[in-house]
Fold this protein.
Amino acid sequence: MQHNPPATTYTTAPMQRPLSGEIRVPGDKSLSHRSIMLGALAEGVTEITGFLQGEDSLNTLRCFRAMGVPISEPCDGFVRVEGVGLHGLKPPAAPLYVGNSGTSMRLMAGILAGQAFDTVLTGDESLSRRPMKRVIDPLTQMGAVIESAEGRSPLTIRGGQSLRAIDYVLPMASAQVKSCVLLAGLYAAGQTCTTEPAPTRDHTERMLTGFGYAVARDGARACVTGGGALTARAIDVPADISSAAFFLVAASIAPGADLTLRHVGMNPTRTGVIDILRLMGADITVENPREAGGEPVADLRVKSAPLHGITIPEALVPLAIDEFPVLFVAAACATGRTVLTGAEELRVKESDRIAVMADGLSALGVAAQATADGMIIDGAGACALPFGSARIDCQGDHRIAMAFAVAGLRAAGTITIDHCEFVDTSFPGFAALFQQVGGGLTVSELTA
Ligand code: S3P
């Protein structure tokens, strides 16, 4: 079911005090999606804590409820999923609406390709512009039948096909495509393998293993054999490092900051943002490293530091793929030039993040130049205020909205950001948490 929240605008304001405090940002989005999906397909009851009650993962939850899976109403991050087994899903009465969420659409396409019934997957305007051919192609090779609007959603997935295993070499570094193929592989005859061109987040492989489903991994290759079963288990979802990233940059660029972020997921396929910020001179300390439910977690302490421009190593790009909007803000505050290459995937995220960020940064007076696969930014350095005033439309992209809110910490004027209702897809409560640690931000609703 479609849910249209009221349009919201953020207006940045001067910092109320040096950023400080100890906070826990909401649960990891990737893990929240997967906990519902695998919990639904498991045998037994999966109890989830730390679940992200953001629109994206809630859409996944609603879709599985619509397919007959009893799932409790999330409360304070707690969700109880009564698994129906790999073959227990029921035909939904209506198309499955996933809103803004590429992860829901691509991962669910893999699961739905293996069902006995037809389904239709739809999403919002931003999602209907994003490429789905990248999952349609391998699924079709497996014997799935998928109709689409020239490789875009809505997708109609015809049930009742017998899937066969494939050995798929991914043409791009994409955890969503890898996960889609592996999830379809649960329903295929034989051993399905994926080989990725660069390491991407491995939450699906880890969580399948945690649910007792064997995943054979060897470097870039991951394989599953169809016909097994998943066994329910408890899942503790750590705080999302992609949400923590806004505060890592905020505290790095705001004078006098000293902030601690609790229980952050530290999966090595997600920590590129820390590596990149440290290369730029950031002061980030990893405290109390530990393990929670098959994933490494830690507390992160970040203090303000003078940043300098760098050439971002391409190997770090997939490991920080969602963090570039806010990393561009860090680059604008750094001394010297930052160069990003090998990041063409940014053009097909919730928005074209290269174009939208370059336009917004330029409107704010930053020397930012978009390139085909990245960005060149000449930063203003620690002693200047790199951002002026402008009104920015985040183009339906939550991470663009939050990145410009962080830029407000070092703005000479006011930044007005329209359509911040999309922030709720990944980070409900962002503005309140930003204000709580000392950031200046007002939120207004367009009620007309
Ligand atoms: C995700 C994978 C990434 C990431 C997205 C979440 C996932 O996308 O950008 O926010 O949960 O698997 P790609 O796999 O398309 O790079």
The chain has two domains: 7-27+238-446, 29-236. The chain has a mean pLDDT of 97. Residues 30, 103, 174-176, 179, 200-201, 321-322, 345 surround shikimate-3-phosphate (CB under 6 Å).
